[in-house]
Every structure is written in C-alpha cells, then in structure tokens.
Amino acid sequence: MHAAEYLIVGGGFFGSAIAAYLGRCGYSVLLLDAAENLCTRASYVNQARVHGGYHYPRSVVTALRSQENYLRFIRDFDAAIVDNFEKVYAIAKLGSFITTEQFVNFCALTGCRLVEATPAITRLLNRELIDAAFVVEECAFDAGKIRILLRQQLHSAGVTVVTDKKVLRIQKKSSVLSAHLASGEEIEAERIIVATYSSLNEILCNSDLPLLPLCHEWVELPLLAPPTSIAFGLTVMDGPFFSFMPFPPEQCYSLSHVSYTPHQSWQDGASAWGIATANLSKQSRVQVMLQDSRRYLPSIADAQYIKSLWEVKTILPRSKHDDSRPILYQNNYGDCAGLSVVLGAKIDNLYDCLDYIAQEL
Ligand SMILES: Cc1cc2nc3c(=O)[nH]c(=O)nc-3n(C[C@H](O)[C@H](O)[C@H](O)COP(=O)(O)OP(=O)(O)OC[C@H]3O[C@@H](n4cnc5c(N)ncnc54)[C@H](O)[C@@H]3O)c2cc1C
Q1: What does the pLDDT look like over 94-125, one tens digit per residue?
Q2: 216 Cβ below 6 A of ligand 1
Q3: Helix (H) or strand (E) holding 252
Q4: How far is 7 from 162, CA to CA, in rounded Å?
Q5: Which of 132, 192, 325, 359 has the greatest number of C-beta atoms within 10 Å?
Q6: What are the extents of the domains in the chain?
C-alpha cells in the first residue's frame, strides 16, 4: 500500500471525519479500518442523540460546548438529522441528582431552551414518580446516513479508504512512522492519528507506548418497536433512570438504563490492556430495563423487543466523577513525533478535535 502524509487508523465517525477534513486541507490521506465497513462500532451502536447540553447539568462546560457544537453538527450533517419527534426531559421525584428547580435554573444559565411538556405527553407519564417534564431543542442522528455522508466527504476530499485492515502496532523509523498490519503489510506515513476508541490501548500496548487510563463498559442497547402512543424521545434525569430514544438507522427506538445497560466495567491500567470482548456475556437485561422504565412511562410495557446491540463504551476516568464529556486529543503521543491519539466522548465534540488539529497545521 502507498505511503501517505497522514494515516488515520480507525474509520468510525471520528477517524472518518478527521480524514475527510485533512483531505480537504490538501494532504494525502489513507484511512484504514479493521471492520468491513466504516462506522460499524460505537458510531453505530449508540443512543443517536445530538447533544444540545441538557444532559450535563453536572458539567456546565460540557453543556456549553455541546450547545456550540450542536449547531455546527446539524449544519454539516443536515441530511442525517432526524427531528420529527418531541424530545422530552423529565425529572424524577425520588432518587434524582437534580431537582426540577435546579434543572430549570441550569437551562436558563446555559441558554438551553425548554418548554413544559403538553398534556398529550404528560398524561403518559406516571406523575407520582415524575415531578416535571419539558420539551427541549435536541435531535437525533441517523448513523446509517452519517456513514453515507462521510463516504461522500472522503471521496470528494480524495482520501483513500481501505477496510478490513487491522493495524497491530506503530513504530518510529527515522523521520517517518510505520504501521504494521495484521495482513503482514507495513505502511509508512509522516503522521498517524489513532482513532480506534475502545481499542486505543491495544495499539499503544503493542507499540510499547504508555497506555491511556481509559474506563470501559460492556453495554447492551436493546432496540424496540414503540407502541403508537409513544412518539417522543424520553430521558429521565439524572440518576438511575432511563432514556427511550429513536434509533433512526433501524426505524425503531433504543432503550438505555443507567443501572442495567452496563453489564461489566473495567479500566485499562498503566501496564495492562483490555479484556476479550468475545468472551463477554450477551444475556439480555431488556426485561428488567422495561420493568423499571414502565414505572415512569407505563405504556413502554407495550413496546416490542426486536434485538439488542452490544458495544464497548469508553470514557475518561474523570468523566465518571464529574459527568464531563471532553475530547481527548494528544499529539506527539508518548514522545513519538507525528503520532496523535483521539478519543471522542460524543459525536459533536468532533469540532473540538478539528480545532486542535487546525491549530497544528
Ligand atoms: C451505548 C453508547 C451510547 C452512546 N450515545 C451517544 C449519544 O447519544 N450521542 C453521542 O454523541 N455519543 C454517544 N456515544 C458516544 C459515541 O458513540 C462515541 O463518542 C463515538 O461513536 C466514538 O467514535 P469513534 O470513531 O471514536 O469510535 P468507533 O465508532 O468505535 O470507531 C473506531 C473504529 O476503529 C476501528 N478499529 C479498532 N481497532 C482497529 C485497529 N487495530 N486497526 C484498524 N481499525 C481499528 C473499528 O473497527 C471502528 O470502526 C455513545 C456511545 C455508546 C457506546
């Protein structure tokens, strides 16, 4: 395979969008992904929410960054935006980290606009457990359409895309970097950006580079056909509750629950990497998720279970404590000139990453 100025490892949303950006800037770019297609992993298996800030009352910085990036995201990925449903945030009476008054104040402070939910929505909620419900200005994205848009962007930016190519390790060779592939091939590039999300440390470990202290969860995302009465996305804030969101690529809804979605969690330490996900259990917890969710939204009991998607969710250790969702972008990683690593915490913080890259160019 030809050498390139930039080699991007990982063709999820972040790797693909970064590759397209660098291609538009005039660099020769090669994008490699281990899977058979782009955006098949976390960029597909997620709640599909374009964050407008409402989700982060415990991290005002994250809320403000989300708001700013939201507008850029819905402009750039307009054809993949799904906005034909009401987006409802509800506050639980018991067990919530936030009261209705605090949520309203937080939204006023950050400029997140909301209005009280209409009776058509609130009559479907159990008012013994729900204190208040608001319609907010957020939307969903269709991950299948995002993939098509990214493919178009990559094509018009002249990026070479090769799938089914797993990078094992990266090595510094005098003035260039060299990537060793599972196929036995070796590719040289002036700069390499690793955007492999949950398996970032696999490449770093194989390359004898320091590991990132990443926290992982093995998560289940059940997909359901909603009853006709539910034509809105519902998020119960902020604690051991659930979200029921449209999942546009499969024209259904996803259910996630703070207590039951993560089946297992682990952290990559200074010297140990990973866990064999192939051995992790896929015993669904959809029934217990539904049992708890129906206490707040009784008609969810009539939703039809379709199947569960499984993925590894990865965040930075600090995010577990302060609920922030910053981008991680480090260049010259581990004193390896030209090597960068990126971990996107949510789709819209692509723009924080592109801002870092733009400063470097
Ligand atoms: C359950 C869940 C819910 C979420 N909900 C939301 C949400 O509602 N809104 C939001 O904005 N964000 C959400 N997120 C976060 C969001 O999904 C991620 O931030 C984003 O998808 C990360 O994109 P990525 O490109 O870094 O990772 P990925 O999409 O995982 O891409 C990484 C790519 O690297 C490839 N790869 C891995 N190893 C190698 C290798 N050795 N060689 C070559 N290629 C390799 C993989 O095949 C994959 O395509 C959620 C995440 C999860 C898991």
Answers
A1: 999 999 999 999 999 999 999 999 999 999 99
A2: no
A3: strand 252-257
A4: 11
A5: 192
A6: 4-360
